[in-house]
Amino acid sequence: MSKNKFESYRMRPMGLHDIEAISHWFEHLPDLSLFDRKMPVPLTKSALGERWKESLSGGEFSKSFWFTINDECDAIVGIVGIDSVDYIHGDGVLALYFADHVRRKGLGIRASAMLIDIAFGQLRLNRMTSYYRSDNDATRALTGTLGFQVEGKMRRAWFTGGKHHDVLVIGLLASEWAETRANLRKTLKGGPEITLGRAPWSSSEWSDPT
After folding, report:
1. Tens digits of per-residue pLDDT, 20-58?
2. pTM confidence score
3. Could you give the domains of the chain?
């Protein structure tokens, strides 16, 4: 029996107060250079707060919806978001980042699936878009499992470590998600449980209770 089967995590809306807990993640330049193409060097906590302020401001037509993933001790171990929401065309950008010690445990795929459910089932978006550096094999594998398809390539569009890398543009349509979602529910076994919100209002759509 997998150790991960008994691990439980909670997804909740992210706030500016969470910057304090995650700011040290962005001091690791190799990770930062994979996560944010527009942030080439680490920033101070206050600068990060200013950078995130608009994304976390909320409002009736918010363009960003970010969530933290918290472990059983309520420590933040990851963040996931629907960014750059376009309500006219029905598009949003999938983004995620996890602390190193919880990677490769199946959290990313489950949290992303829950986020896609929100995008298509709550925000009425028609598609999800994402971008990743051409040498980011982990993101390629994760988004491929979620059903994203490569739609284009931006040549030499990501500069880091003294080199230019290609950027892959990928997309997932709402009409494609139902089948992929059903297949994931059958194949994602023995992994962690992720609930959205606090009990008794929480939803555990992406868990394996058996």
Report:
1. 999 988 888 888 888 888 888 888 889 898 988 888 887
2. 0.88
3. 3-202 (3.40.630.30)
